[in-house]
Amino acid sequence: xxxxxxxxxxxxxxxxxxxxxxxxxxxxxxxxxxxxxxxxxxxxxxxxxxxxxxxxxxxxxxxxxxxxxxxxxxxxxxxxxxxxxxxxxxxxxxxxxxxxxxxxxxxxxxxxxxxxxxxxxxxxxxxxxxxxxxxxxxxxxxxxxxxxx
Length: 149
Description:
Blueprint: H1 14-67, E1 79-87, E2 93-109, E3 116-129, E4 134-145
Antiparallel strand pairs: 1-2, 2-3, 3-4
């Protein structure tokens, strides 16, 4: 009995090894791309929380300016805005702000037909986002008033 002769060349598995190496390279690239995208989303989120903290501190300054009146002198009560929680329209917390207004100095402004004083105030406001980002902003301003220093 004759056995059929197999004329096909025998492969040693080189195509399998090459295929597995290429699959490994593609897997590493896919994981690296996913990590890069996740890192980019985290950075964008952190920037948003930082911007929220800055805007909350600015809100504290605006609220302090609108609350007035401002008192100049040693016996005046502090003009402070307590820590205030801010939420979005869906009821989710955005963060908090607080502000404190302090009297700095009184300067004489003369040379005009009437003497007047410029009362110098400073508002310091701190905003903190819901994820812990914090911003401290200051704004100084003068109020013109009668000569009573």
